[in-house]
Every structure is written in structure tokens, then in C-alpha cells.
Amino acid sequence: MNEDENFETYLFLSLRKIEIFVCKKLDNKIFYKNEFLIKDELREFNFELIDNFLSNNIFKIEKLIKDFIKNIYVIIDYDIFFKVQITLKKYYSGKVVNRNSLSNILIDARNQCHKTFQGKNIIHIFLDNYKIDNKDFKYLPKDLICNNLCLDITFICLPETFIKNLENILKRYQITLNRFISANYMRELFPNSDLELNEIAKRILDGCNENEVKLVAKSPKNKGFFEKFFHFFS
User: Are both 91 and 134 inside the same structural domain?
Assistant: First the structure.
């Protein structure tokens, strides 16, 4: 059995609660769920508490699913994120604007973000607005011919030190950190929703927000830079 083919595991972290839940991929129903309420008033994450919580749950889960947890999604509910908003302009001179033509803009934007804000890792990328020949579009029109494009981009980042600390804990259980999701982003996208955390997370991971660029892992195959790092949901 391969855990990755049957289950998805989520870890929720806040200053008041640590929670883990495992869902069946087939129907996204929660198979296992446990939480730890933090009584002490914390000003930052206590990684020892996170480690102890995982120690009390990981092996229990693996026994239930009869396999190892290999990957985990982490939902962060704490103001540790760093937002960067930039606008980039490109002249097309009557050429078609499509997914491929946006690749260089996104690469330039990503490089600028990394260069300017060192010590931060990009978690979410949003294409907030397309200004095409001075007309605003919320979504990119299909195969639109234009002369100039202004693209408003938002990056949501996390400190590298935080990511490293969490990765070091997960390595003890041979678990790879799959992706981070901002809890604030989840609430903004689904305000006043009765959906469970796993249901909202699953919809985000499946690309419910057309203007979010999904970060994907590097591939050992011979692919272009854009294909390695970005994927559009159409």
C-alpha cells in the first residue's frame, strides 16, 4: 500500500492549538483527527510542543493506515507571513498574451522578490489584476492580442528559519513538507464558510482560485524553468 495514493495528511499550527488530520483521498473524509490545546500564552511557535505532538500521533496514524506518512500539508494560523506586492509591465506590440507569454514576467517577479526580500520563501502567488491596453481584467482573457500589459502580483512569504525548523522536526519522522497554506487566505477565500479545514484546503490545492499560481516541486526531467516552478489553473 502507498499512503500517498490513499490518504492526505494536514497539520494545523496556531499559538493556541496544534491539530493533525488525515483524510481519505477518495472522498476527502476525515479518517483520523487529533488536537492539542495550548494553555500557555505564546508569542511565537514552540517547536518542542510541535515535536511532542507529532511524536504522540504519527506512529499511531501509521499503524492505522498500515503505512508511513510520507508528505504533509501545513496550515499556518499566525501572523508570521510577509506580503509583497509588485507591478510589472511588458510590451507585446500586437502579440497574443497567454500562459506561455506570462512565464518571463512571473520569473522576473519571483527573482525580484527573492533578491529584495532575502531570508523569505514564497508560499502563495496571486495574479491580482491584468491591465491590458489600459483596461482592467480580473482574469486573463483567452488569447488576447494587446500592445502592453501591466500585471499586479502578490507574493505571500514565510521566513526561511521557520521553514527549516519545521522541516528538521518532520525529518525525524521521515516526512516531507509538501506545501504551506495560510489560514487567513483560507478565510478570505471562503468567508463564513461551514466547510471543514480539510475541505477548504483541498479546494485550494485543487486550484479553486483561478488567480493563484500553484508552486510545484522541481522536476529532474528536462523542463523549462516556468514549468518547474509555476502551473496555471485554467
Answer: yes
Query: Does residue 218 fall inside a structural domain?
Result: no
Domain of residue 178, residue span: 3-79+159-212
Cell of 26: 477518495
pLDDT digits (tens, 9 = 90+) for 134-169: 899 888 887 788 898 888 999 999 999 999 999 999
Q: Among residues 146, 116, 118, 108, which one has the least CA distance to residue 230?
A: 108
What is the pLDDT averaged over residues 200-208? 91
Q: Strands 120-132, 135-137: parallel, antiparallel or unpaired by DSSP?
A: antiparallel
pLDDT at 4 over 60: no
* pTM exceeding the 0.70 threshold for the entire prediction: yes
Q: Are 71 and 97 part of one and the same domain?
A: no
Could you write out the DSSP letters of every residue in 41-98? --SS--HHHHHHHHHHHHHHHHHHHTS---EEEEEEESTT-EEEEEEEEEEEEEEEE-
**What percent of the residues of the chain are helix, what percent strand, and what percent coil, each to the nearest 5?**
30, 40, 30
Question: In whole numbers, what is the pLDDT of the chain averaged over residues?
Answer: 85
Whether residue 78 contacts residue 46, with contact meaning beta carbons closer than 8 Å, is answered with no
